[in-house]
Amino acid sequence: MGRSTAGWSFLVVCASLMFLLTSSNVLAQGGDTSAGHHRGWRGEMIVASKSISVGGATIQVDFAAGSLDLSQADVVAWVEESARSVAKFYGRFPVARVRVVIDPIADDSSSIHGTTWGDMGGFPAVTRIRLGQHVSKDDLKDDWVMTHELVHTALPDLPDDQHWMEEGLATYVEPIARAETGRLSEERVWAEFLHEMHNGEPERGDRGMNETQTWGRTYWGGAMFCLIADVSIRRQTNDKKGLRDALHAVVDSGGGIDKDWPLSRVLEIGDRATGTTVLTDMYAKWSEKPVPVDLPALWKELGVSAGPNNGVVFDATAPLAAVRESITAAR
Ligand SMILES: [Zn+2]
């Protein structure tokens, strides 16, 4: 629902901002937060700033001028909870420092849009959140955007034709990370996958992932790549390793958003960590050709079926029930 429209719109926002940034060269003045007002990297007036520590990282939350119904404390708590989910999933926060700029949208009821860049203005990562003036505490409780943006810090900046890997990984990891700190139930994670993952299937005329830059292929096609990779790694290792182990290794090797690495390096580090060649093999196929997935058969194997209220029912006797539990299990 919200994800489709919001996801699409901030993809567009991201592209237009990139243009703005590279063409006008207005970059951040990082670091100086103590002395009252200062300018953000897009020239907006920063009126308040608070730094928090999460998972070994310092997160600087800067408020641009503008009215919000929410208190600054509520917004900082939301950033902190989102960062905790990401730190829990990765074992620590993926980069040492992040700047989060909160930019209010006047007269807007519920918009939460995010964009994240690497290596900007002296920060390894900068996230800009455009926050509707009338967004409520309840909206923040249900929000996925902040967590999604912070997951982006855990992967090197990739070339444009591999944007699907950046968005797909964030789409896949975000609900799992929220579940691990109790912000989302396991049922909701799987309900979202069950109801939305089909958006990632190749449609008629689609080519490989690197050449089909539609919303469905970018967000859910990328997420489907991650799910299939996760299940394949777990099948091949008797559920001893998963995609998470690959992602931990990438972060532990310093592969955050502040780096420009070729994707092959990311995949090799990931494969080495799981003792498989799943990521490299899958990428070779998926990047070049459309690869349809039999999702109904996969849900059956994982023991996930549609339940009441848009939810799911789990089958503990399904052949891959343990794999499903491992994917969403907190450690
Ligand atoms: Zn994203």
For the sheet with most strands, the description reads: 6 strands, mixed
Strand content: 15-25%
* Envelope shape: globular
The mean pLDDT is: 89
> Which molecules are bound in this entry?
zinc ion
- The sequence of SSEs as H and E is HEEEHEEEHHHHHHHHHEEH
Q: Number of helix segments? A: 12
Low-confidence stretches: 1-36
The rounded distance between the terminal residues' Cα atoms is: 30 Å
The largest sheet has its strands arranged as: 1-2-3-4-6-5
Strand elements, count: 8
Q: How many structural units, i.e. domains?
A: 2
Helix content: 40-55%
Helix/strand/pairing category: alpha/beta
Radius of gyration: 19 Å
Topology:
Layout: H1 2-24, E1 38-39, E2 45-54, E3 57-64, H2 72-90, E4 97-105, E5 112-120, E6 123-132, H3 137-141, H4 145-151, H5 163-180, H6 186-196, H7 215-236, H8 243-252, H9 263-274, H10 278-286, H11 295-302, E7 304-306, E8 312-314, H12 321-328
Parallel strand pairs: 3-4, 4-6
Antiparallel strand pairs: 1-2, 2-3, 5-6, 7-8
Bound molecules: zinc ion.
What would you note in describing this structure?
The chain has 12 helices and 8 strands. With 331 residues, the chain is α/β, with parallel strands linked by helices. It has 2 domains: 2-154, no CATH class; 160-328, no CATH class. The strands form 2 sheets. Strands 1-2-3-4-6-5 form a 6-stranded mixed β-sheet. It has a two-stranded antiparallel ribbon with strand order 7-8. Mean pLDDT is 89; it is low at 1-36. The structure holds zinc ion.
